Amino acid sequence: MQASITRNPDKAYDILQTERLNPLDAIFAPQTVAVIGASEKPGSVGRTLLWNLITNPFNGTVFPINPKRNSVLGIKAYPTIFDVPEKIDLAVIATPAPTVPQIITDCVQAGIKGAIIISAGFKEAGEKGIALEKEILDIAHKGKIRIIGPNCLGVMSPISGLNATFASKMAQPGNVGFLSQSGALCTSILDWSLQENVGFSAFVSIGSMLDVGWGDLIYYLGDDPNTKSIVIYMESIGDARSFLSAAREVALTKPIIVIKAGRTAAAAKAAASHTGSLAGSDAVLDAAFRRCGVLRVDSISDLFDMSEVLAKQPRPKGPSLTILTNAGGPGVLATDTLIESKGKLAPISQEVINSLNEILPPQWSHNNPIDILGDADPQRYTKALEIAAKDPNSDGLLVILTPQAMTDPTKIAEELKPYSQMANKPILASWMGGEDVAEGKQILNRQGIPTYAYPDTAARIFSYMWQYSYNLKGIYETPVLPSLECDTNTRDCALVETIINDARKAGRTILTEFESKEILAAYGIPVVAGSIAKSAEEAVECAEKIGYPVVLKLYSQTITHKTDVGGVQLNLRNAEAVKRAYHLIETSVLQKAKPEDFLGVTVQQMVKTSGYELIIGSSLDPQFGPVLLFGAGGELVEVFQDSAIALPPLNTTLARRMMEQTKIYKALKGVRGRQSIDMAALEELLVVFSHLVVEQPAIKEIDINPLLAIPPSPDHPGGLIALDGRIVLHSPKIEPTELPKLAICPYPHQYVSDWTLKNGTPITIRPIRPEDEPLMVKFHKTLSEESVYLRYFHMVKLSQRIAHERLTRICFIDYDREMALVAEHHNPETQATEILAVGRLSKLHGNDGAEFAMLVSDRYQCNGLGTELLKRLIEVGKNEKISSISADILADNLGMQRVCERLGFKVSHSNDATVLKAEIDL
Fold it and tell me: Do residues 310 and 468 make contact, with C-beta atoms less than 8 angstroms apart?
């Protein structure tokens, strides 16, 4: 009993579903275009738009709309859109902003599916503009018309010839999809591209993204077979969840390279005023790009250099570069840039040195960079390159040439041609000079070896390549399921809800340290327990029970930073010291705050802080919602500023990637003879902490500072202890539906439930998770050839089905875009967990429909499992407001047909006699 959503190839390989129609086709591939606001006034936008459309044939028809003229530029004009004799696909609007709502209303009534609003004067102009945008968006959503703009240059599809812009030139056809929030930058890039012979598959100025945003365009270009890479100039991210969802899916098959304006506060302010959008933290944006496999660069030249190099060369597997040069100075410059951009020089092994000694003069550098000296001829270059290329310590090669009297740049370039496509590492070249090296550069470029005028540029490009590989590796790597996460029932969620609800009912937004630690402990995070004392005598009693030495900390419902008001006293070794500390804290707080801020103290055991003090926290970003922080903690956390940011939720792989961004990470692994802390335990704690943030949306801010990390010992087996905790809640006035949303959809626990097969086998049906890859390998080994054929419509080898790259996409899904439910059974005899079936629901790009697929292990077919999985997928579809669900089913697959009919699907014949179409409206 199997169903397939695409016939050939398997969706795991054709993840972009290239044959599907997309509503944006009306904008990028129209057959008829209306120019509303077409004019003959020289220099006007309306005239330029019309001229560009009629002078760049796109196999379509153009209709000028102008109520005051019978013709424009010699073409018959029409008073309104309703007077055009043909059905219009795309309307290009260049009229004053106040007229646009009515024009969009007319477009909807005329059945137009795409519009480009060139006009300015919307949200960038203030409140009136914002109101206009809202009115237009309401009309567009009801009428199902997609809009690019407003305040944009327009759209070019150079391959088809469409030029719906007011730019002065047409872009050349190519394989780069270019998206920009700045129209002026578009014209500059266009001028540069013509000089540099760079071509585009799409050239889009998106303006203020009223309707069509980054996510829509990334999906569209991801599906476009003519687009090999996507480059973006970004000022604001808009719908963060949509961007991350689309980018993560498409980045697996096509590079997405972004230059984001607004790194500095002044630039962010300028970008915000330009786009009328809020600017979030730049560090959070970096974290978001890492999370979805997007590469961020710092200059426009790097934007297109990376697009070229990723199309020509394989990605490096690590950060280590080998530099081969005929001059010392350029090698040193390349090394400086490499190290500054977080790359590394590949270490040269003694074996490689011995091999190079045999072919190089005695004066060669005997190190990396490999300086083969100024008199190097083509043979010396190629022999040295051959040895360096085989070095397993090297992840990439940079060959530098400076034109000296004895060098032949052209012949050396010819000799390098066989190395242009090494299977597992990239090769870059820097041919320095002008006329003397020009022919050699052309030879290398034609052969697919990117060349750069300066070696530091080449070194920086290699570092970017490694950064891109590193980002993608984070998506591909299979995480481990933390032991703390295995059973969510072990969390005391009822206690957490009680603490939070009681505080909100009392009108409080700040939890006490005692309450904060109770919440942390409820999630299994180790804390230093404490007792509340409201007098000096009570403090002594508590200390006697705990045992000396102890710590006294301010107990307050209003003050969170206790140290700032003298609210912490450490290492108290007797009753007298405890009494004195109590009064010191009370006096200090009364001097620096209000009487009601002092409610007593908490008494805690004094823990030896011989390990590392860390901070783990979460706060709100205006664009991405809750974000996580990890780094060096303690009182000087803001001084050292050694921290990393990530988006929740985390898995163990993402937690480790977050830690790797910090300097303290190296120390935690053990330095100068110190024992490493339990890194796996720290990863698990970060994962669980991220789930606390995800599952408790009423929490606005939370931090553990310090989290003490020490090597495991009998007293502290995990070696991790939260010494202090701080939680701030959202205002009780904020309704639950108005709380900030996560940028990444968390694991949907609401779809987890138990069920029993017809044969009595108990199972759990739950959404798939990244950690399921090993179970999916075992699952595929249980499938017969018939089951595989019925699912994929052709035979797929087991080795292909269980390939890591494929299963990663299947297990590590975006729950916003698709839902995969697995039927899991825990075998009581073997104590092993196995997956019995998988059902998948995938949203279609560009519309609100979805497709389903299903695969049931042969041993468990005919037990009602397929019916139950499909029934649950239908419920998921309804909850996600999907309009319809469909699937392609082989005519021979009678079992799946019966299941579909039983659940209300309409099963009908398709154009292919061997395939049936099952559809249901929700």
Answer: yes
- Rounded to whole angstroms, the Cα distance separating 164 from 152 reads 11
Closest CA to 162 of 58, 33, 233: 58
Q: Which residues pair with 93 in a beta bridge?
A: 36, 117
CA distance 561 to 568: 10
The answer to whether 632 and 613 have CB atoms below 8 angstroms apart is yes
Spans of the chain below 70 pLDDT: 1-21, 262-280, 482-490, 609
Residue 563, number of CB atoms within 10 A of its CB:
11
**Cα 424 to Cα 592: distance, rounded to the nearest angstrom:** 63
DSSP letter at 770 equals G
Token representation of residue 9 = 């190839």
In angstroms, the CA 644 to CA 337 distance is: 23
In the three-class reduction of DSSP (H, G, I as helix; E, B as strand; rest coil), residue 168 is classed as coil
Q: Quickly list DSSP for 70-115.
A: SEETTEE-BSSGGG-SS--SEEEE-S-GGGHHHHHHHHHHTT--EE
CB atoms within 10 A of CB 451: 20
The tokens of 676 are what? 């490493």
Q: Give the three-class secondary structure for 501.
A: helix
Residue 772 has what DSSP assignment?
G
3 state DSSP class of 793 = coil
Give the global pTM.
Answer: 0.85
- Separation CA 101–CA 134 (nearest Å): 10
Question: What would the pLDDT profile of 251-260 be if each residue is shown by its tens digit?
Answer: 988 999 999 8
Q: Residue 273: phi, psi to the nearest 5?
A: -70, -30
Structure tokens at 396: 């990439």
Half-sphere exposure of 229 (CA within 13 A, CB side): 22
